[in-house]
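Handover notes (outgoing to incoming on-call)

Open items:
1. Cytochrome c oxidase subunit II: sequence verified, structure written out, both below. Nothing else pending on this one.
2. Nothing else urgent.
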Amino acid sequence: MTFKRLLAISGLALCGLNTHAEPAYQACAVCHGANGEGNPAMHAPALAGQSAGYLARQLQHFRSGVRGSHPQDTYGAQMKPMASTLADDAAVKRVADYLAQLPRHNTAANIEADADAGYKQYNMKCGACHGQKGVGNEALNAPALVGVGDAYLNRQMANFKAGIRGSDPKDKFGRQMKMMAATVSDAELQQILAYLNQQN
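Cytochrome c oxidase subunit II structure tokens:
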């Protein structure tokens, strides 16, 4: 998909971008928003406030084909050429650092489930790595889950379960998530997402 086509679909114009944004982020803002707030219509998660280390790793994975190469990963395949617009590792770092310092956004909740049950499930299966309130843990290479958007998290868990994500031998942390995702039922996932929505 061309950059012009993405602009047309998203309804953004370059003149509407955050003028204080990292220049290398401009191509990303077409889908992920001028302030990293995400765009559910574009299936693009919110990125603001996410760990710089996690963001840089995922961008490198898209650039190298570790992520987005599975034939069923439609949105990952769209990310591959976009990540490749970042000229080098320094540009990746600048974008990751820029997004990490932005304030996290409150994302709209699309999931309705028992958040109290989700709290219990989250603490049993997710909290040890991703933090009690889903804010992530850089020491464990675990990204923040709050503020990303429940539709995106739902899709990624499905991708981990199906082997669409986390199957590449070079994706160490993705492989860990693939194993963890297999322990979470669909009903439990909806409850966990409902709990995370309350932490926004």
